Amino acid sequence: MAAACLLAAALTACAPSPPSREAPRSAPSASPAVPSPPTLAPGPAGLTPVFDHGPRTGGRTVALTFDADMTADQGPRAAAGEHFDHPRLIATLRALKVPSTVFMTGRWAEEYPDQARSIGRDPLFEVANHSYSHYAFTGDCYGLPAVSGDRMRADVERAYAAFRKVGVRDPMPYFRFPGGCYDRQALKALVPAGVTAVQWDVVGGDAFATDADAVARQVLDGVRPGSVVVLHCTRSAAPTTERAVRRIVPELRRQGYRFVKVSELIAAGGRD
Ligand SMILES: [Zn+2]
Q: Which of 47, 74, 85, 259 gives a 20 to 30 Å CA spacing to 15?
């Protein structure tokens, strides 16, 4: 519960005054030595705040984010040898020293506990929440089965519990809606979870892509200062991502971009 207190005390660069909502009761754990992660102040009417990009001025920063998708019913496919993980992508990010945010499903962490722990304990990365089993938080979201409103908070907390169980330290209080689908009801349902919803402003288009160059081009064409780029850490569904990253990273660095985690963009003050 120390983390809950820390979170409640956390002021964000965007918040003119401390968030007034109660501390989340099941917040991600953090040791007292770890600074509280930056979060956004509650949105209009006290709803869960939504972040989609950082400042457009004041420097060229960009956050690459990787969704580690896995649905509850994909366990048998994983058991049959399908790879929902992507160790080579993680190795490349390490080799290129790219700070990144991994939005992990609880189900992925359970399927790949060693990798989840390794990512979660590497200061190059931060682990954030992508739901427990990648069910949708709205009724109509790319055909995904939906979580009912009264189960939304529990789903998010179940993912945090999965992270803690496999040894991920200090998962971030950031939540990415499966499919990016949300509405007012979902933002309201997640208020007690104490998360900041994190969307993106650049779609990598790597899901089911077969052309790494096309993915790289789409990212390079879309990135602006403060951008949040969504890509995937799921080899079976996004097999070209690692190759695309090897093109994207040196090119953006050549353009003067610095890679940061989502927390740094949020701390920098959100949008302008
Ligand atoms: Zn996803």
A: 259
Give the rounded distance of the alpha carbon of 103 from its chain centre: 3
- Work out the percent of the chain whose per-residue pLDDT is above 90: 79
Nearest-angstrom CA–CA distance, 175 and 266: 13
Please tell me the distance between residue 215's alpha carbon and the centre of ligand 1 in angstroms. Answer: 17
Å from CA of 207 to ligand 1 middle: 9
Query: Which residues 6+ apart lie within 8 Å of 106 measured at CB?
Result: 129, 131, 132, 133, 158, 159, 160, 161, 162, 163
- Ligand 1 centroid to Cα of residue 33, in Å, is 31
Dihedral Cα 232, 179, 41, 37, nearest 10 deg: -30
Instruction: With a cut of 70, say whether residue 20 has pLDDT above it.
Output: no
pTM of the model: 0.86
**H or E element, residue 97:** none
CA 133 to centroid of ligand 1, rounded, Å: 9
Q: pLDDT-based confidence at 100, cuts 50/70/90?
A: very high
pLDDT given at position 15: 34
Q: How far is the CA of 22 from the centre of ligand 1 (A)?
A: 28
Residue 236 confidence class, pLDDT cut points 50, 70, 90: confident
